[in-house]
Amino acid sequence: MDIKYEKIISDLEKLKQKNKGNLSHEDVHDYLEKKKYSLDDENLDDLFELLTSKSLIKYEADTDDELLVEEDDEDLVKSVLDEEEPNFESEEDFIVNDDDSDLLDDDNLLDFEEDEEEIATDDKKEKRYSNKKLSNKLTETNDIVKWYMRWIGKYGKLLTAEEEKELAVKIEQGGRKGRLAREKLIKRNLRLVINIAKKYKSRGLSFIDLISEGNAGIIKAVSKYDFHKGFKFSTYATWWIRQAITRAVADQARTIRVPVHMVETINKVIRCEREFQQENGFMPTDDQIAACVGEDFDAEKVQYIRKINIDPISLDKNVGKENDTSFSDFVKDDNIPSPLDFAAQNELSDIIDDLLKESLEEEEQELIKQRYGIGYDEFGNKFRVHSLDELAEEKNVTKERIRQIEAKIIRKMKSNTNKKKLLKNYYE
């Protein structure tokens, strides 16, 4: 066994003993996600074969879920969405072409001699029916999800192992029969995608996106499935559906997308931190984490990785019991002074302005305001702080002369005992 799988297999064997039974695919993928293992498709395929050969995972799909049991379409919808049905005019408006002429009957599993023209006609009829009946009716996300679940409901329950094998043989032989067999193998397992996707509904992606990623996983499973190895397609498909969904959640659920290579680096840092704590009983320093990661890592880069891993919160997010308040209402804006500070600042400005007017000539007032950025010019623009060089150039004198004038102005202001007392009281 490849050394890179030894730790994974060892941990999963311990988990199997703890669970007192074979692990589900969900258990395995949750473990990989928790431990932050990043495996490519080839490694995942190898790992699946290892797990099945060692009897660590269930040798079938997760048939304990209600979506894979024989039930009517109404129960199928309600098991995922606990909301009212959209207001369709009739039941027919909700189903796209319930004609089974475009499906392969179970009784004629190997009979693919259907006319190409008939298939094209059925496709056009389904599209025309869809456009006519469903236009402007699916206005909300949940409506679309419900419609989709009803649509896949017409393909029936999962295939048996024998049916899967017969279809896989046709796919291997290729040709038009192989393409039709591939299509049927995918369609008859679409309910499996719903079954798995609903368990990830609170992970940051919409249910529609989860279904889309799961469908991509089942297509990949069909292309990689080898029935000669002996396991059921539904077992193999479950593995790849979960892989596609968990990878999508990790890659797309963030508000700001983090590149895949950076996600792998984040996972390394998290894994090193967790393993160090488990081995030593205390949290590692940034330097210790950097030493564990290697690859020219230092403490500063570890801190940078932590900042990247922080997921932002939308200021428009609704909070409160009634969801009638936005998160921004509770966030302090440091750029805006508090009412108390604003009032104090205005009071101080008035005191200083009175002090300047009582103690200095008009030219002296302007110079000291420019020097310290106090008050406003004649056009209402706030003075910025000027350097001695800037004032010397503007007044056409030396920098030393500006310094002397500044010192003289400050002495005159200090001699105003009334305002000086006000300033003292203000700061006390």
Automatic annotation (TrEMBL):
Pfam families: Sigma70_r1_2, Sigma70_r2, Sigma70_r3, Sigma70_r4. InterPro entries: RNA_pol_sigma-70_dom, RNA_pol_sigma70, RNA_pol_sigma70_r1_2, RNA_pol_sigma70_r2, RNA_pol_sigma70_r3, RNA_pol_sigma70_r4, RNA_pol_sigma_r2, RNA_pol_sigma_r3/r4-like. One of its GO terms (molecular function) is sigma factor activity. PROSITE patterns: SIGMA70_2. It comes from the Bacteria. NCBIfam families: PRK05901.2-3, sigma70-ECF. Belongs to the sigma-70 factor family. This is RNA polymerase sigma factor. It comes from Mycoplasma phocimorsus. The lineage of its organism: Bacteria, Bacillati, Mycoplasmatota, Mollicutes, Mycoplasmataceae.
